[in-house]
Amino acid sequence: MIETHDLRKTFKSRRGPVEAVAGVDLDVKKGEIFGFLGPNGAGKTTTLRMLSTLLPPTSGEATVAGFDLRREPAKVRYVIGYVSQEGSSAPEVPGRVELVMQGRLYGMSKQRAVARAAELIESLELADCADRPTKTYSGGQKRRLDIGIGLMHLPQLLFLDEPTTGLDPQSRARMWDEVRRLRDTGTTVFLTTHYLEEADALSDRIGIIDHGKIVALGTPDELKRQVAGDVVIVGTDNASDRVLQLLKGQSFVREATSADDLVRLYVDRGETAMPQIIRALDAAGIPLASLSLTRPSLDDVFLRQTGRSLREAA
Amino acid sequence: MKFLKDTWLMFQRYLMVFLRNPAWVAIGVIQPLLYLVLFAPLLKSLVHLSGFPAGGAYNVFVPGLLIQLGLFGASGVGFGLIAELRAGVIERFRVTPVSRFALLLGRALRDIVTMMVQSLILLLLAIPFGLKPTVVGIIVMLGLVALIGLGMSSLAYAAALALKSEDSYAPLIFTLSLPLLLLSGVLLPLDLAPQWLQDIAKANPLSYAVNAARDLFNGKGLDQAVFEGLVIMAALAVVGVLIGARRFTRAIA
Predict the structure, then answer these.
(1) Is A214 found in the same domain as A117?
(2) Residue A85 clears pLDDT 80, i.e. is over it
(3) Domain count within chain B
(4) How many Å lie between the alpha carbon of B90 and the closest alpha carbon of chain A?
(5) CATH at A289
(6) For the segment A151-202, what is each residue's pLDDT rounded down to a tens digit?
(7) What are the Cα distances from residue A307, in Å, to A129, A207, A212, A295, A311?
(8) What was the ipTM of the complex prediction?
(9) Of A39, A148, A228, A243, which cross-links A120 as Cys (Cβ 3.0–4.6 Å)?
(10) In angstroms, what separates the C-alpha of B77 from chain A's closest C-alpha?
(11) Mutation for B interface: A67, A98, A105, A159, most B CBs within 10 A
């Protein structure tokens, strides 16, 4: 759905050129939720604005929904939707009017636009406020309207710039459901975020960007596995030495340490290691007190690639 | 076709936004009305000065007032655009296949229509004071206002897009519109001015519009000054639209 090759954007500033995007290679597949993660100022929004035709790239190639971004931006516009961070509706205009207007700009007939707007108002639960000026909307309502505006023309690809920034936890959970529902109906979603949890929970695949460059690309699980693998913690009753001896030699264990009745096992895949651990302990007749699995987070991935924690960088 | 349709859609949108805030319509009429009631009577005692144009105080002053209405009406339109830039509306439009030219023209048409309605109201209100309009005069006058509205609004939008903030837009607009107004002879006819001031005024396109407007109401009819005014205002409109359209087409980073 999106393919870029060495995409770059250089801005002129008083202190000389600033390379906001420094050679990005991306490939976003049809029908997936692609999370674009990175600290503020990493080049997320600039990349997004290039891909959505708002900003011409300085150099590089990009194909969006089958069209060449630089040569056919007009065709790209028909098949993409874009929801910016800043919002998209005028304060004095009712949501329904904004929706209909948006549909008409894509060439829908008035009748079709009115019907489609009604559909979206229903599915995004905006019925209570659709005919009021948008300045009276809550943060969550406004964001849902923004999504609706982006979806009016049934785009194949929807760009969401920081869709949950500034939302309360409840509205955020709702937004996540909404994005998943979109993916389930076949829309490809490209979203930027600086929230680790959001990228992790929502994305099928993730690209991590820092200083204008992609530093990691893959499914959340793949990325985490690249870093360190999983940690399985086995709890015992005064038998940690025996457990350590027993499991240290197993082929699936990379490294093992013990402390205070707890044995920490570093493994590639925690979910397949756990049954093997249980069987081995069972066979040796060692009672198991507890068993838990911890996984590296995306922050570990970011840390490994950039030497900084994303929480600090953001 | 798409361009015309988009222009119509944009025009409808901005007309609706405008009508939702009728205070603007009222302000647009009240300001010139204040000039009519509180300033024009001063001119009555000047009518006999040598150099004061023929036709009586109101037939001299009201046409100029309409040009002023066009100038001031247009200078304020950028504020709405800046608010929309901030709300993300313009960016939203730019991602759609909407005609870029329609983004400018739809708005400018709304401005023209509101200015023409305000002008008409002002003309009607001035009749009891002693204005003696002709049908042709009114029609040509409205055309003149429309051209000024188109040119000046487009320039105002270009400035708003370039500056992106009220803090720089407001000082620029007020700094530019005041000399334009003073050098156009709206308040007092430039015939009363010393020669050097008249020479400077010749460089101000609006002074031609004011001369044209006066002749439309003082019985001279469609004379050369009227044609000059129309041609110069048409040129202003073309230049303004070109500059404005260029701004709307360019990426807004």
Answers:
(1) yes
(2) yes
(3) 1
(4) 8
(5) 3.30.70.260
(6) 999 999 999 998 888 888 888 888 888 889 889 999 999 999 888 888 888 9
(7) 47, 17, 16, 19, 12
(8) 0.82
(9) A148
(10) 16
(11) A105
Where in the sequence is the domain holding A270, given as residue range(s)? 229-295
The minimal CB distance from A92 to the residues B9, B21, B93 is found for: B21
Same domain? A132 vs A8: yes
CATH code for the domain of A91? 3.40.50.300
Q: Do A204 and A233 reside in the same domain of the chain?
A: no
Residue of A18, A101, A146, A147 to mutate, interface with B, max B Cβ within 10 Å = A101
Same domain membership, residue A42 and residue A137: yes
The answer to whether residue A14 is domain-embedded is: yes
Q: How would you class A34 by CB atoms within 10 Å of its CB: exposed for 0-12, middle for 13-18, buried for 19 or more? A: buried
Segment A275-292 shows an average pLDDT of 85
The predicted pLDDT at position A311 comes to 65
Radius of gyration of chain B (CA): 19
Structural domain for B143, as ranges:
2-43+53-249
Q: Is B169 inside a domain boundary?
A: yes
Report the distance separating Cα A33 and Cα A187, nearest Å: 9
Q: Output the average pLDDT for chain B.
A: 87
pLDDT of residue B253: 39
Query: How far apart are the CA of A225 and the nearest CA of chain B, in angstroms?
Result: 38
**pTM of the predicted protein model:** 0.81
Please tell me the distance from the alpha carbon of residue A268 to that of residue A257, in angstroms, as a whole number: 16
Residue A40 DSSP SS3: coil
Asked whether residue A148 is assigned to any structural domain, the reply reads yes
pLDDT band of residue A259 (cuts 50, 70, 90) is confident
